[in-house]
Amino acid sequence: MVRDAEITDVQTCVVNGNFDWTLVRVYTDAGIVGIGEAILGERVADIAADTIELLRGENPLNVSRLTELLYRRLSYTGGNAGGVTAAISGVEIALFDLTGKLLEIPIHQLLGGKFREDVCVYVDSHAGAHLRSAELNDESVFSPTAYADAAEAVVEDGFDAMKFDLDAAEQFQEDVWNRHLNTHAVSQKANIVKAVTERVGDQADVAFDCHWSYGTDSAIRLARSIEDYDVWFLEDPCPPENAVVPAAVTTATETPICTGESLYRASGFLELITSQSVDIVQPDPPKCGGLRETRRIAELADLYEIPLALHNVASPIGTLACVHVAAACSNFLALEYHAREVEWWGDLIGGNPIDGKAIPVPDAPGLGVDLDLDVVESHLSDGETLFDEM
Fold this sequence. Notes:
Blueprint: E1 7-16, E2 20-28, E3 33-38, H1 42-50, H2 52-55, H3 63-73, H4 82-103, H5 107-110, E4 118-124, H6 144-156, E5 161-165, H7 183-200, E6 205-209, H8 216-225, E7 234-235, H9 244-252, E8 257-259, H10 265-274, E9 280-281, H11 285-288, H12 291-303, E10 308-310, H13 316-327, E11 332-337, E12 358-360, H14 373-378
Parallel strand pairs: 4-5, 4-11, 5-6, 6-7, 7-8, 8-9, 10-11
Antiparallel strand pairs: 1-2, 2-3, 4-12
Helix pairs in contact: 1-4, 3-4, 6-7, 7-8, 8-9, 10-12
């Protein structure tokens, strides 16, 4: 156990997966390194690496104080939202990993301990083909049958929860800007929901994502059109920033409404939760502010009996960070897994952490995993260089 260490460096590199995975390492004079992840891309990596100017010489055990230091000193560049908050999220996760390693305890104990031994995952499946392999000009990929076939394949892989993009074929609309769904478009989407839910039956929970695409009226009509089907939740049918808008949709339908991946820090969720404008909250830990902020969001939601789902498009590093905070939140529902088509995803940490349809909560120090730097190096984005080993 080491209690007296100093931060010596912060380094980043971007891995080219199905998304850009921004990996963060915080180095110490004790020879122990913490690993984190932020989303998305080169600007976030640059901001995260630059935090060394504020963190050099600090004791990494002071995670909350150091994270707050970064927010306050970087607030003029957008420290409460956007790329700055995503970068701070990655550094904070690395600090938690480092603290766990120094104290020889898992992150979930730093967050108050675990409520569960396994964290349920659901598979993001895009449409009738994976997001990066879909031919976007091929309408057959977006047919109800293609969606249903993809859902059946997820069940055959052993999963019992999944999500599909219900807005995936928007390029075929006449006007992609006005957030309006005509009667035909609503019917088409309802047919997709019908096909998928009837195909999987009671074998799996199925959610559908709309990526904030629709105005209030269209979102309400869509949500009402799928009330007769067994929908786990409808994610982001409308923009969430003005809580009045999701509130109108939530109160107008029996379909459970979920939102939150585009919001930042607990303050960004405050009105949404306190006005009970949503049925499920969905922060993204490597983006919304890190593990401490996610825990604050979860506790606020718990006061209103609102469950917590975690959005996640990360590598196994960000995913395991989500697992630790999910284990420590009583109202946790499910964690997104968005890399089923990336065969080498688990190789980044020496093996896929998913066991069947869940991820066992690690009890090893910190995140409980280490990066395989050879695998990282083989999948670096163009122009990226590998971290120093120590």
